[in-house]
Write a structure and sequence with these properties.
The chain is of the alpha/beta class. β3, α5 and β4 form a beta-alpha-beta unit.
């Protein structure tokens, strides 16, 4: 008997060429869970405006982080996590890797597990906080693929792990590689989302609390809200690091388009901190379990330069979990069916 596990991350271009970046962006942005507007309008927006202008710029950015030997950092680190988890779990498990967009595909990963005659399959989306554009899209694609199978083994899909004790411990360990006394402030920068993506978090068709501070304490009403889960991750890590509330800020990066996204924006926060006389920032990105364009380039280069131009002196990115053995143990626990969460409120167990 064997159990199949499919780790799923977001995706990466096959190469940093404009053509491959264009292909990646097209598949990513044409997903209705990523840009949730009418399909025809999405086609016009993505094919007619975003890709022609964004693909060449994104290709240049990918070229800056692309390693000549190992290629895409996201794919390299994801494969490393797959290998380490396979070692942890042993021969009774078959661990495969997939990307929601581009290669290796979810369809190929599931086919390999099917060919291995796995008695059951567990899908582990590698996104700590739930979002329709990430976890939801993975679930939808898995369902699309397996519904064509004549015989479907038991399939389970793991939920978000934003408050798993080992996830918190893994990011805390990464941050402790740096002397917190050397930094004036700590940022927890998460990937942003349009506010429209929060509207169904309570199944009510609208955001249950679009007021200031509504997401800063997770509760039974907002427990499925991406922003609330981000705040919970940040506060749990901050607590382990013994940071006072005034020592850190939760913010959101990677905006696209003109619509309103979750605030505060990381770019705005670093400008404000520089104006307030802060000279050194330590930045953690707990929405990313593998270093990628959004961590290495956006935070580690673009925002660093913005901070220095605004009067700051140092912005240090804390590397993502990558090959963290603590994180691999967390994946093992999830794969074996264990749930061990941390928390600040009534949802904690």
């Amino acid at each position: 008997m064997s159990k199949g596990i499919l780790l799923v991350n977001l995706g990466t271009p096959d190469s940093p060429s404009v053509a491959d970046v264009r292909k990646y962006l097209a598949e990513f942005l044409m997903d209705g869970r990523v840009i949730d507007i009418h399909p025809f309008l999405r086609f016009l927006l993505v094919r007619g405006i975003i890709i022609p202008f964004r693909a060449p710029k994104s290709a240049r950015l990918y070229q800056e982080i692309w390693d000549p030997q190992t290629g895409s950092p996201l794919l390299y680190n994801s494969r490393l996590q797959q290998e380490l988890l396979q070692q942890e779990l042993g021969d009774e498990y078959v661990v495969e890797l997939a990307m929601r967009y581009q290669q290796p595909s979810i369809a190929d990963g599931l086919a390999k597990l099917r060919a291995a005659n796995a008695d059951e399959i567990q899908i582990i989306p590698l996104f700590p906080q739930y979002a329709s554009a990430t976890n939801g899209s993975v679930i939808a694609e898995v369902m699309r693929v397996i519904r064509t199978w004549h015989t479907i083994p038991p399939v389970t899909i793991s939920g978000p792990f934003y408050n798993h004790r080992l996830f918190i411990r893994a990011f805390t360990a990464k941050a402790r590689r740096y002397d917190l006394a050397d930094y004036d402030h700590v940022l927890f920068s998460f990937h942003g989302l349009p506010l429209s993506h929060l509207r169904d978090c309570a199944g009510s068709g609208k955001c249950v609390g679009h007021d200031v501070g509504c997401c800063q304490q997770i509760n039974s009403q907002n427990k499925l809200c991406y922003a609330a889960q981000c705040h919970e991750s940040a506060h749990l890590i901050a607590s382990e690091l013994q940071l006072a509330p005034s020592d850190f800020t939760v913010c959101f990066q990677s905006r696209l388009g003109k619509q309103e996204w979750i605030q505060p924006y990381t770019s705005t926060v670093i400008q404000q901190l520089a104006a307030a006389g802060k000279k050194s920032l330590l930045v953690l990105c707990p929405a990313f379990i593998s270093d990628c364009l959004e961590t290495i380039q956006e935070i580690g280069a673009e925002y660093r330069d913005e901070f220095i131009a605004a009067g700051g002196e140092q912005l240090q990115l804390v590397e993502s979990l990558n090959d963290s053995r603590i994180f691999i143990r967390m994946l093992r626990e999830i794969g074996e069916g264990s749930l061990a969460i941390s928390g600040r409120g009534p949802l904690a167990v």
